Amino acid sequence: MTHWLIAPVVLPAMVAPFIILAARYHIGIQRVFSVVGVLVQIAIALGLALRTSDGTVLLYQLGDWAAPFGIVLVGDRLSTMLVLLTAVLSLFVLLYAIGSKWDERGRHFHVLFAFQIMGISGAFLTGDLFNLFVFFEVLLIASYGLMIHSGGNARLRAGVQYVLFNLLGSTLFLFALGAIYAETGTLNMADLAQRTQLIDPDASAGIRVAAVLLILVFAIKAAIVPLHFWLPSSYAEAPAPVAALFAIMTKVGGYAIIRVYTLVFPADLELTAGLHDVWLLPAALLSMAVGAVGVLAAKKLDRLVAFAVISSMGMVMIGVALFSEAGLAAALYYMIHSTLAAASLFLIVDLVRQSRGHVKLKTAAPVAGAALTAGVFMAAAIAMTGLPPLSGFVGKLMILQAALDGPLPVWTWALILVSSLVSVVGFARAGSTIFWKAQSVEVDETAEPAAPPATLSYVAVGGLLALLLALTGFAGRVYEYNTATAAQLYAPQPYIDTVMNTPGKLGRAGDAKADYDTDGKTGDETKTEGETH
Q: What b-and-e string marks burial along 401-440, b requiring 16 or more CB atoms within 10 Å of the CB?
């Protein structure tokens, strides 16, 4: 058992109270500890990703209590990759917050930021559904605070809407957990994967209801149409660094769908057949189309980017809904790409807002640092819309290739290509309005020019764009990694064996284990020989 696996959760959990207790009134010290904490987080996440890159499944049993009795964290290729993505994204978002001084506009920014990283990392690493719910709540509570950071009526209204939607999701999540526990007697995902195989499909009403509730909850988190209404206003009104960090939040919902519906309720499971494998692809296609229309119809740049997030999440879910290794590998590649592209666009929106005071799509005087800002906007827009040569184009080709062997190939190809064209038109309209047409506006010589954005802000945006370039250059290597990850997800027995057979209190390998019947009630005890890992 490696203790490093719990470090991505414990480290930000220690940084946050330390900042409150030791550096509450010293923004400089807060910044130092926050940046150092994120750098250490990146080092740990990179180490875990390298450790699991050969297919190893890492397990951490809290208090040495064995599953399914104790809390476990599980690190495999997917979870460690997403923890690393979260940490890297956090670094550039943090640099932007410091450079633009967003962290000075309200109290406890760095504390909430640390708790947010803790919640996201925990959600990726947890091995049971109840703690997935707990980490959802941790990251949501932190995000509530970050949403209304620096105040304002519009931000407060968007925050209330955000809270209400997510409370609805949390309530449904609790109902689903109650139903699953009543039917199976466990919430450990590896244990559930074994027990759902034993339930009689003719007596499965409770577990089928729970499976539907779960995918509804995860669809709300992932902002899949028609459960996306909370996202445009929430992300558009959030402070720029917060919205950029939120780019990974919808991926948490996508991750939960991938994990639960490849491990616990796979597509070939007769018990839940037809509950998610039939309508998930149409919902994903609809999400992409609605997002693209929103991009074209948006009247403000921040809402345009928010709808682009919905469209990109639809693209990710298309790959997931194909329920094939090729589709999932393409979806994971696009998930990395869309997180980085969306984050960079949210930060660029703030560069425009700093000069104009608003981000309405109407012709106005050029923004400060117009040439550089226009350049990074063009690069990020090319990436987000999937134009060559950046990673969005590569990811889109991967999904189109995978869709040839899936259901609805004609609809999938048609909607992807048309939505991409619509998104290109929407971004081109926004770019020409803000940057090109601005050159024809007469500048008031008597007015004091706006100060250009801080250099550190451009460093943060440039860093994210550099990562997109790297993702394009190493697309083959990343796709190979994701293909192996998809194969691991579709062959979960090593994951199950590691979680269930690793020795610990009340569950050492070879000890007597409680058998159970299909109602989830404890029955006769039988001797089993577990494989020790």
A: ebbeebebeeebeebbeebbebbbebbeebbebbbeebee
